[in-house]
Amino acid sequence: MNSLSEIKHRIKAVGDTRKITKAMEMVSIAKVNKLSQKCEQYMAYFGKMQSVMSDILLRTGEWVHPCLKDKGKGQSVFFVISSDNGLVGGFNHNLLNFALSKVMEADNPIVCTQGSEAESFFKKKGISVLKRFETFSDFSEIYNVDKYVEYFLELFAEKTVRQVSVIFSSFSSKTGVCPKIIKLLPIKAEQSKERYLYEIYYEPTPEEVLDGVIPQYLSGMIYGCLLQSLTSEFFSRRMAMDSAVKNADKLLQELSTEYNRARQNAVTNEISDIVTAVNGVSDERL
After folding, report:
1. Are 110 and 163 contacting, i.e. CB atoms less than 8 angstroms apart?
2. Looking at beta carbons, which pairs linking 175-182 to residues 24 or more positions away fall under 8 Å?
3. Is-cis flag, bond preceding 204, omega within 30?
4. Domains along the chain with CATH numbers
5. Whole-model pTM?
6. Model confidence over 15-41: pLDDT tens digits?
């Protein structure tokens, strides 16, 4: 049985840990609420961008932009978005196993990552990482993702690369967190076959306007993936910290019971020693 001092030390250590995990849980809740609002704003923006793309494509005739062409065979690029930090439960484990299965299905794949967890995971599997993007947390402007668009457009321009995909953690308030893959390039923009009811003139031409809109469209897609991934990370951390707090509460209750039992035994032993001593003195007098 542990001594009273050892039990008290464990109670203090668990209590201190609980304070940290509870604080991290509260921070994660605030982050999820804030990022969820940004997700709603993003969906409104990207929905409008898709409408614009569809409208422009409707007016370009038979001409096909290079970013919309299917190259057939070639290398597949996978951009995997993970977290830099732990304490997120099964967030990285589920995502990276899903990503590995997709990478292994491709012939001669190219892997790019964001997040130290993804980079170390693929290195352990013997898969080289072509490019690692530094994690950033400033989602105030969508144009912060321009560097991603420039890099992937350059990769896709190479003859050996046939497609670029993003693997990330998708978040939904109904279904929670789940890994997801979307194709970034070639673009699969929906082109309506219905005749438009009003005339819109694009200057100088729809083709040139489309050439300028495509980078913005890709920025919107990548921005959404990064935003979803970060929201999923904080949601997973919130759930992990909630579980840690509950486990700490349970352990504190068990330690408190053990402490009270040990203290009671100590008091009982002291009383027994006193009674024994008193009886010994009484026997000597007799």
Report:
1. no
2. 176/235, 177/91, 177/94, 177/232, 177/235, 177/236, 178/94, 179/94, 179/95, 179/98, 179/99, 180/228, 181/98, 181/102, 182/221, 182/225
3. yes
4. 35-238 (3.40.1380.10)
5. 0.83
6. 999 999 999 999 999 988 888 888 888
